[in-house]
Amino acid sequence: MYNKNISIIGIFMLIMINMVYAGHIAISSEFTVPRILRVNNYNFTIGVKITNLGDEAAYDVSISPILPDGLNANTIFVGKLDFNTTFVGKFVVNRGKNRNITLGEYVFGIITDYKDANGYPFSSVFVPPERLIIEKYCNSLVSGKIENTNLPVSGSKRLVLKVRNLEDRKHKIDITLLSPRELEVYPKNISVLLQPRMEKEIDFDISSMGALMGSNYAVYAIMEYEEDDIHYTSVAVGIVRMVEKEEGVNIPGYVYVALLAVVIILFVIYQFTASRKGN
């Protein structure tokens, strides 16, 4: 049971969350992770395979791991990744001095960085639905939902996370927001207390740091809590769409003309009424 591996494959369409797009560059990812880890396993590996499905090369490609506190692994530098080319590597994860890690489920993922032929940088975050399980399966009863957001390329916006506690006991939830490097989010970390059967909205400020108009970026909210010495984790994901400006209500010009006409008529009636009273 402990030697089994699970393969996680990510090959999605344009707007899906684990693909990096710039022009005709499309990088997909695939993972192989231990299905379950013994508490005394201080080192393990996560296999990673990325493929450029586009029709032009990606440059300065690197893959950085997203791991829970106390687990460490080095960034993998790929370099140039030609189109229709696959790179296979692995993260060697070390628990270091963190010998007392709590049993339960944890998040892992990657940040992929690369440049196009013009040297313009891009990045993408991907967190798969599978978890790193340290000896103990568990099911988090805290769920979340990120509302999809249109973000002006030269402005900022409110990003809303709805968190719900489905248990009959309160929980202190630690929330971490993960976003591509082209987006700036504040705050990145926050803790909230959820009473039993409670839903709460949490606001984050999000702005562009060079994100391209027309692009779609995935953002993730990692929600964690501990109960009875077990670590619980859940994930919410949303899409931030880059737009030129925020869409407003489009009022036809004839409406303004009609409003002006009403104002003039009211003014004339008022003048006529006032003159009659004066006489």
What does this protein structure show overall?
There is one protein chain. The protein is mostly beta strands and 279 residues long. It has two domains: 1-137, Immunoglobulin-like; 139-245, Immunoglobulins (Immunoglobulin-like), CATH 2.60.40. The chain has one helix and 20 strands. It has one helix spanning 253-278; strands at residues 5-10, 20-22, 25-34, 43-52, 58-66, 76-81, 85-94, 103-106, 109-115, 121-126, 132-134, 142-146, 149-152, 156-165, 171-178, 183-186, 189-194, 199-208, 216-227, 230-243. Strands 8, 11, 13, 15, 17, 19 and 20 form a seven-stranded mixed beta sheet that branches. The longest helix has 26 residues, at 253-278. 28% of the residues are buried. The model is unreliable at 1-18 (pLDDT under 50).
Classify the fold: give the CATH topology of the largest domain: Immunoglobulin-like
Q: What value does the average pLDDT take?
A: 83
Number of strands: 20
Q: What is the multimeric organization of the chains shown?
A: single chain
Structural class: mainly beta
CATH class term of the largest domain: Mainly Beta
Measured between the Cα atoms of the first and last residue, the distance is 102 Å
What's the helix count?
1
- The helicity comes to under 10%
Please state roughly what percent of the residues sit in beta strands, choosing from under 5%, 5-15%, 15-25%, 25-35%, 35-45% or over 45%: over 45%
Could you state the order of secondary-structure elements as H and E?
EEEEEEEEEEEEEEEEEEEEH
Q: What characterizes the major β-sheet?
A: 7 strands, mixed
- What's the architecture of the largest domain, going by CATH? Sandwich
Kindly report the name of the CATH homologous superfamily of the largest domain.
Gamma-adaptin ear (GAE) domain
Domain count:
2
Low-confidence stretches: 1-18
Shape descriptor: flat
Radius of gyration: 26 Å
